[in-house]
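Q: Okay, next protein. This is SPX domain-containing protein from Triparma verrucosa. I've checked the sequence twice, so it should be correct. Can you predict the 3D structure?
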Amino acid sequence: MKFGKYLKQNIEPSIGVENYLDYETLKTIIKNLTAKQLAPLTNPSSRGVSLSMPPPTSLTGAPITDLQNGVDILTQESFFSLLDSELKKIEGFTGKKVESIRRGLRVVNESLKGEEVVSGLKEQVDGIGHDFLILEKYVNLNFTGFHKILKKHDKNLPNPCKAFYVARMHQQGWVRGDYSDIVVQLSSIYSSIRGDKSVKEKDSTSQAFMRSTTKYWVNTSDISKVKYAVLQHLPVFLQKTATGETDSQLTNSVYLDNSSLELYHGRLDKTPGAIAVRLRWYGNGLPETIFVERKTHRDSWTGEVSVKERFIVGEEEVKRIMRGEYDVEAEKKKMKEQGKTEEDIEEWLILVREITSAIDSKLLVPTMRTQYMRTAFQIPFDATVRVSLDTNLCMISERGYDLEGGKRWHRDPEKPIGAEEIARFPHAVLEIKLEVKEGSEVPKWVEELQNSGMLYEVHKFSKFIHGCATLLPEDVTSVPYWIDDISIRESIIASGASHILTKISEENTDEGEFGRSGAGPGANQMYPHLLPHGTSNQRGKGDVISARTSGQKFEGNPGDQVGAKFMNFGLNYDTDSDDNPSDSCWPSSCCVNYETAAPTSIQKVEPKVFFANERTFLHWLHMAVVVSGVASSILAFSKPGSFGEWFGIMLLPISLGFCTYALHTLHWRAERIRLRVPGRWDDPMGPTILSVVLIVVFSINFCFELYGIVEKDIRRAEGY
């Protein structure tokens, strides 16, 4: 769909078409200027002009017409002037709308000061929240429109201007404005309406809980919608800043590893007992209070759970830990003086000794830092549902500077970072942590959010793993499955790791946008252990995919289709979608398009899945043996030339078909399980076809037998 048509279809009536970007007029100006065949500037570096020199000729050498009183009435200045006025118009409207929303929130807060909640207040707040989301959609539509029209200008006219105007837009209030105060107020109001109360901290050691953590990518344009969906049920954990309260807090984590990236590969391969050690601090400025944390992986299918343990130290103590000079006994003495119990001290002592021993024995040094703004949603001391949203996520390499013998454990914030030492992640990362009693159901609103189409599940996504794979590509021997996702390609190329990406052909991209040079042979070709099971040699020649298929027809709830939006950040313009012939293809590896990069998804695979596939194969073989046995028996006892003989002959190829289908499905499904291909792993077509064939054969047999009985009765009645 062309963007101009898309814009018209998505204009909000309450805002009015006059407040949107005048895309069609700008497009018309470009079209008319293109018809003039304007020539580029002959000498852009010249610092002199002549007031008596005629206008330059066109590309064909002909004088430019369409003059009025000696002045060209349509020039590129006409385009720039209208563009400037449109930018000013949208910025003004956005500012007025934000102020209107803030006034509405102040009125609601005044109503909440009474002892009783005014009736109809929730509907009023819902309306304000809805207006805020409409405003964000308005901003996104116009922002995309400016990008599109500037791209069209640079494509058709000789003097490019997109880079200048895009940089200018990013400095304007309607694009870079932080309206998190609206989110904070909405959260506070909803919390008051719900009557949230902090629950007492409970000892859950004697209770059985089902704990689960799921991570999602969230498109930038959906961040406010996701925040609004969550804050209607959970309050925002507010952060104190110099300018007041905000909904997010800067979080830094320095991950430790050695020269061979032992911890990285252990976490990537999900080796039982694999650890990650990090130093985390919160807030702006230099770190003062640091959390030394250790995460230990456990396979959930074994009945164990992964754990995170930590202890708190000061900045100077981190230096002593890195140098191996941390005085455990002195700290133990301080804890006793503070009145800590022997049990707490012993647990602390074991953890500290294990972490310091790992740092010393594995030669761990600062390797990777993650930095993001975290928004947390949780009722205090209630761990039933916890939600965190990380935005402005970037990974920074902690290699390449002098550690000064352990005196320095993070980069000097005053020194600039090279382009290949930082990777800026294009999406926000949402994490939902559930702690539900066994037998209880997941809250309905959580399921609705998961199926809303705004979340894109990325199983076991890790910021540490992603950072190492993209910033230290020469040191890793394998990379995570999500690396080849097309929505993060630009960020990986910008960080200098383009050679690990799958090569995308020009014909499979929109105007070759991602098919540029710099996209290498692909991670699966470079690293044989990329896929969860097997190696690239086992997959066969040309079988280069990243646990995904192209042209996959997703079925089910909208949440299953959300990955497709990341292809073009949720908007699909200037392309016409045709039916994919592979949608109607019978399940086979031939249906996989290995050249087109599609959004990555992942299926969780446990060992029992492989055994279930084999059991299904044996069940089909059993049915084939039964059918062939029946056919053989019929043939053995039937008279030559009778219908029974023909019936047995018809059953034999059917039994052979069952065997062939069972073998084909076994290998087809095993391949999808091994590659963790997204979508369905069952085949609704094959069993239906075989069942229909059996029904037809049995129906024919029934009809002939019925005909024979009726014919005998007729003959008996006639005295034959």
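A: Here is a summary of the prediction. The longest helix spans residues 76-111. The radius of gyration is 33 Å.
Q: Noted. On to the next one.
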